[in-house]
């Protein structure tokens, strides 16, 4: 099997599963319970928090455990909107955000009467900082920009945006770091980020766990009211086993990260070269300023869903667009925003790698893809 | 860009005369211990300064650790590069971009040990300064009082860029001032008192009174975690956990309610003094601050202190609660101290404790029972743990969860 769909989800590391099993069996206590079983579980929780904080270069009391990327993005955006709606009702985001950002914004636009400005992107999928500055208004309370695009891998200028926003103390800065984690370094302090979303299963952890970083002093309203866990930001009995597993997954992912991402980038370059030379393929992922693990290209005129199934027959797993959109048979909104070309956006394929992939797999994929595309062109034109 | 070494300047040590060697050796050992996990580094010391040779280890992480070591006045990281003008310009730029704190003004100060270098010091100053100006934003030159003096040292074999001065923790190297015991309750004050006495070079062992089932495992864990924080400064710390239940029960039974607090503190001090003696320590450190609570009035201290002639050091005696909390926050103990678990001081707090207890009265009340035997039992029943920053990791290794 060749698994090239790591932006959808990654395979959990065996060590991660081992931690999950051990904690589930031996430390099943509720961290809020008074007795020693509870205390043991609570200790594991705080140890996980410390490890995650160290790895992210932040303080322990800035790490809040969530159920994953969607919750983190919703909590950041809705929590900030509800908390600060008296200050203003304007939010700035981009045209290429993940649905969990975009739809959360649309929801507060409709239900809480907010105005949302979506910054457009250039042909590399990147926003313009001038446009960001122009979009800022006295009633802007939040700017939400993803770090790495989940469809094309484009890296947004987070540090530069953070430098601009640091001059606007009333504007919170949220970064969706779900695709960037473990792949592209991001200095949370240096980038002046207030809120940052992470997901465990994108870094070989388990589904159902994530982190929202909330900078010290930043106030947002919780989505879940209840037993006041996570310092009231996120009530609900903690998924201790999943959280320990996440801390471990993060640790393994971030050990020798530069060496691993260099190798991933080499593999991607090989695939890029192989695919580029094929007929009527257009690259969507920019060659510079993109994350090392994502390669997105279009084959206009070809139904790429058929390509996904044909590759699957050869035990190769890729995506058409992001996993969240592929079921809806929608076209790629990111590629549409970049090129304003619906034929191109309707025919995307996304390869996404992890440190578990090899150069041999890349070679194998290239020849399989060439084979399949040649055959399909004969039938589908 | 390769950071080559960190130059460390001594604080108060440099005023010492004949004891200097001992101070420096202690500091060197403390730095080595703090940086133990960076296996490639080397620490070299001479009379006036010390060098951490990085050998490829991360200078930012190491700087962060050095900030917590007592006995360091300040320190400066340095980059090593090829002795060519282009290399020097590039290295200076990445040094500017890697500063731990932002600056507004700078100047360049060049020294050529290698006089055959093709440019004069003035020329190098100009070239490097100009290069930095064009390649940075919002930073200007100020030759009189710059925020940063970029030091360029050109030798035959290499050139060094340095100049940033990072403040150290000051004080004297931990362990150079003898040993004391710290009465550690789990509250906000006692860890701060411990920290401040370590700053003056004291080595500490901690004593905590545990009264199960009146106090919980969590309140014990709280103290272990506090010790863990202190051990980041001091290296492994001994924590003596005293079983205090029997003594507390007897106090409740025997002493009139408004005097239980005074008696409890007297007995704690006697137990602590006995442990101190066994451990060969010479003083007792407490987190008392004058007038903060009933047991910390001058009358209370007078009545409590009567039980021992051992020096009782109270580093926080004149400090306000807010000042103490500020330090607690800086040394990262505040959050642990704020965990809401009762300790043995709060469990049996009487409604109206005496703020002006009389020595004669408390002696009279205590004269009806023999506490000596219980004290002896408590001291014999002490559980001693060695807490080090790595203790958690060791625990984890056996479980292998992280």
Strand order of the largest sheet of chain A: 2-8-7-6-5-3-4
- The total domain count of chain A is 2
SSE string of chain B, helices as H and strands as E: EHEEHEHEHEEEEEHEHEHHEHEHHHHHEH
In CATH terms, what is the architecture of the largest domain in chain A?
3-Layer(aba) Sandwich
Question: Segments of chain A where pLDDT lies below 50 for 5+ residues?
Answer: none
Largest sheet of chain B: 9 strands, mixed
Largest sheet of chain A, if any?
7 strands, mixed
Tell me the CATH architecture of the largest domain in chain B: 3-Layer(aba) Sandwich
Question: CATH homologous superfamily of the largest domain in chain A - what is it?
Answer: Type I PLP-dependent aspartate aminotransferase-like (Major domain)
Helix content of chain B: 40-55%
Question: What structural class results from the helix and strand content of chain A?
Answer: alpha/beta
Low-confidence stretches of chain B: none
Q: Which two protein chains have the largest interface (Cβ within 8 Å of the partner's Cβ), and how many residues from each? A: A-B, 19 and 11 residues
Q: What is the overall shape of chain B?
A: elongated
Mean pLDDT of chain A: 94
> What radius of gyration of chain A results from the CA coordinates?
21 Å
CATH class of the largest domain in chain A: Alpha Beta
Average pLDDT taken over every residue of chain B: 90
What would you note in describing this structure?
The complex is a heterodimer of chains A (381) and B (402). Chain A is of the alpha/beta class and 381 residues long. Chain A has helices at residues 14-26, 36-56, 69-84, 99-111, 129-135, 158-165, 240-254, 257-276, 304-313, 323-326, 333-339, 342-345, 359-380; strands spanning 2-3, 63-66, 90-94, 115-119, 140-146, 172-176, 195-199, 210-214, 282-283, 294-298, 316-317, 348-352. Chain A has two domains: 2-9 and 256-380, Aspartate Aminotransferase, domain 1, CATH 3.90.1150; 14-254, Aspartate Aminotransferase, domain 2. The relative contact order of chain A is 0.16. Chain B has 402 residues and is an alpha/beta fold. Chain B has two domains: 3-170, VC0802-like; 179-399, Rossmann fold (3-Layer(aba) Sandwich), CATH 3.40.50.620. Chain B has 15 helices and 15 strands. In chain B, strands 1, 2, 3, 4, 5, 6, 7, 8 and 9 form a nine-stranded mixed sheet that branches. Chain B has a six-stranded mixed sheet with strand order 14-13-10-11-12-15. In chain B, helix 7 runs antiparallel to helix 8, helix 8 crosses helix 9 and helix 8 (260-278) crosses helix 14 (371-380). The model of chain B has no long low-confidence stretch (mean pLDDT 90). The chains are: A alpha/beta (381), B alpha/beta (402). Chain A binds chain B through residues 18-19, 22-23, 34, 36, 39, 42-44, 47-48, 51, 60-61, 244, 247-248, 251, and chain B through 216-218, 221, 335, 392, 396, 399-402.
